[in-house]
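To make this tangible, this section ends with a sequence with its structure tokens:
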Amino acid sequence: MIKRYTLPEMGAIWTEEHKFSKWLEVEIAACQANAEAGSIPKEAVEIIRQKAAFSVERIHELEKTLDHDVIAFTTNLAEAIGPEARWVHYGLTSSDVVDTANALLLCEAGDLVIAKLQALSDVLKRRAFEFKDTPMIGRTHGIHAEPMTLGLTFALWFEENRRNLDRMTRARAGISYGKISGAVGTFAHLDPEIEERVCFLLGLRPASVSTQVIQRDRYAEFVCTLAIIASTLEKMALQVRHWQRTEVREAHEYFKEGQKGSSAMPHKRNPILSERLCGMARIVRGYAVAALENNALWHERDISHSSAERVILPDACIAVDYMLAKATSLIDTLVVKPERMLENLNATRGLVFSGQLLLELAAAGVPREDAYYWVQRHALKSWDEGLDFRALIEQDPEIRAKLSPAQIERAFNVQTQLKNVNRIFERVFGGKKK
């Protein structure tokens, strides 16, 4: 019997034993399809099912002499099966087995990534509503811009993660193709119906056309999707790193009891998890480059892709699986400092309301160029001399002649800036949620 696995962790998918178990699934499915078509004896299939077994250690031992992993695998099967082993690998070439099995492995990996993306979405949604109305300063170019809320940042990440879910779902579908078309894809030794039956038995779809290999644009899409997911996690981690800076201190990674931040400086609480995520994203992006380059092969196949895929497929999947778990924990336990966010929002003494003030003046009939000049001269003075921006505005006779105290109050009210937050949340999450 083919050994079936429960896969609690991504690493279990990429063990050699599990890989060979998938090779065996393909071989037995091919035997069954051939038997149904009358190409091999039906009784041989039952014997193969009962006796088929392999040893990773024995395969490695055989490969030292044979220098071919698939032949080492089938030779090891033959040692266990006996005479009926002549029907194993009947009409197949190595890539029929390897590429079809790769589809099974990548589908399993994709399912785990999808599950962890969903878990991250759940955490992002919860924290978005938790801080939907928590004001903070928005920044552009690293400089204070206008007020926003922390919940909007989590909502933004939720929406991007939802796109990653869609991307991964498509990439998983795109990778779920097998092929049993032979050495150059011509079905010279087995008919297309055998391929269709094998793929059906394995829960895959047959490639409409192939060479000796499944075309590597499918692999490239899968690995590039992993790289995009990694870049999203890097985006989140980079923001946390900024929030945790001493000068900002708006949020920080959870620092557990007994944890140490520095061997030399006992006061340190460093964003080590966020920095780790940023570094790992660089690795996954590198794997995407290799996956793209694997698409161009000589004629109907060479093996320049094979050596790279032995590294990039398990490593990229394991890295992103790990990153998703850590990013979910990071967001779930992130320590938020609303009072510090409010301090930073007010740090520029009202400068962040200059845009709304400009609009109020324009609405009051002041030409935009004049309004911009009036506001900017006070903004620059406030910035350079550390003065209260609103006080300067309220002392300006030209502005007071155009704006009432109520209009000035509206311009400097943070809720004026945040009046559409609920509508954004309705767009992202649907419906109205209190």
User: Anything to note?
Assistant: Confidence is low (pLDDT under 50) at residues 1-7. The CA atoms of residues 159 and 230 lie 15 Å apart.
